[in-house]
C-alpha cells in the first residue's frame, strides 16, 4: 500500500454505455501538485467528481489519507469531506449570490460545528487576509467583487475546512490574464505554508510547467504518456 495522500487505482466512471474514465491510476503526495491535462471530453471532470466522491465510480479505489472512500457510506464520508476541497473555474459559481462573502467563508465552520461566536468572526477575517482580501470585503456580495477577488474568497472558504488536498479545476482560466499570476502565486504560497496537496486541472502548458511538480495526460478516458 502506498503512503500517498491520495491514491487512485483503476478508477472507472461510466454514464450508461459511455466509459468516461477507463482504469485510471495516479497518486498525489502531501504538499505536491499533480496536473491533470487533456482535451475537452477526455474525462477530467469525471475523474475529479469521483475523487471528491461527488459521483460514486463504477470501479476502482480512491484512497485518501489511507482510507478507501468508495466503500464508505455518506455518513462515514461526511467527516472526511472537509479535508478534500474543490475550487472551481467559475469564481462566481462557487459562491452563493445571496450570501455576503463573510457568511460564505463562515459556512464551512458552521456546518462542521466549529463555529464559535467569540472567535469565529476573527477567524473569517484572518482567512480573508490570508488570501489577500481586505477583511472589509466580507461585507460585500460576490457580484461586488472582481473575478480575481471572488476566486480568492472561494479559496478562503475552501481553507476554512482545513483541507489537506485542494482539487483545482481550471482555477485561473476564467480570470483576466493580468491577474492569473497573482492567484497562482497565492496558491503556491499557501501550499508551502500549509503543506497542501493540489490536483490541478489546467489547459495552459506554460502554467503547468511552472506550477506542477508532475503532470499526467488523459485521452478518451485513459492515461497516456505525457
Ligand atoms: N452526465 C453525463 N452523462 C453522459 N455522459 C457524460 C456525462 N458527463 C460527461 N459525460 C461524457 O463523459 C466523457 C468525459 O466527460 P468529462 O466532462 O469528464 O470530460 P472533461 O475532460 O472534463 O471535459 P471538459 O474539459 O470539456 O470539461 C465525455 O464523453 C462526456 O460527453
From TrEMBL:
Gene3D superfamilies: P-loop containing nucleotide triphosphate hydrolases. Belongs to the ABC transporter superfamily. InterPro entries: AAA+_ATPase, ABC_transp_ATP-bind, ABC_transporter-like_ATP-bd, ABC_transporter-like_CS, P-loop_NTPase. This is ABC transporter domain-containing protein. The keyword Nucleotide-binding applies. GO terms for biological process: transmembrane transport. It comes from the Bacteria.
Amino acid at each position: 500500500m502506498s503512503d500517498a495522500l491520495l491514491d487512485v487505482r483503476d478508477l472507472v466512471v461510466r454514464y450508461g454505455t459511455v466509459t468516461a474514465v477507463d482504469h485510471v491510476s495516479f497518486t498525489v503526495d502531501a504538499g505536491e501538485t499533480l496536473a491533470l491535462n487533456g482535451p475537452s471530453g477526455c474525462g477530467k471532470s469525471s475523474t475529479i467528481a469521483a475523487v471528491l466522491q461527488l459521483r460514486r465510480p463504477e470501479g476502482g479505489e480512491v484512497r485518501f489519507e489511507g482510507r478507501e472512500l468508495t466503500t464508505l457510506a455518506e455518513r462515514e464520508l461526511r467527516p472526511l469531506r472537509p479535508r478534500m476541497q474543490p475550487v472551481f473555474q467559475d469564481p462566481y459559481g462557487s459562491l452563493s449570490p445571496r450570501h455576503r462573502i463573510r457568511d460564505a467563508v463562515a459556512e464551512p465552520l458552521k456546518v462542521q460545528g466549529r463555529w464559535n461566536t467569540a472567535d469565529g468572526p476573527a477567524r473569517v477575517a484572518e482567512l480573508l487576509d490570508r488570501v489577500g482580501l481586505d477583511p472589509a470585503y466580507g461585507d460585500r456580495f460576490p457580484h461586488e467583487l472582481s473575478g480575481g477577488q471572488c476566486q480568492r474568497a472561494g479559496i478562503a472558504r475552501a481553507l476554512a475546512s482545513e483541507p489537506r488536498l485542494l482539487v483545482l479545476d481550471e482555477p485561473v482560466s476564467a480570470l483576466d490574464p493580468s491577474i492569473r499570476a497573482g492567484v497562482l502565486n497565492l496558491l503556491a504560497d499557501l501550499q508551502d505554508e500549509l503543506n497542501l496537496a493540489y490536483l490541478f486541472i489546467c489547459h495552459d502548458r506554460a502554467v503547468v510547467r511552472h506550477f506542477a511538480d508532475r503532470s499526467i495526460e488523459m485521452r478518451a478516458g485513459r492515461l497516456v504518456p505525457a
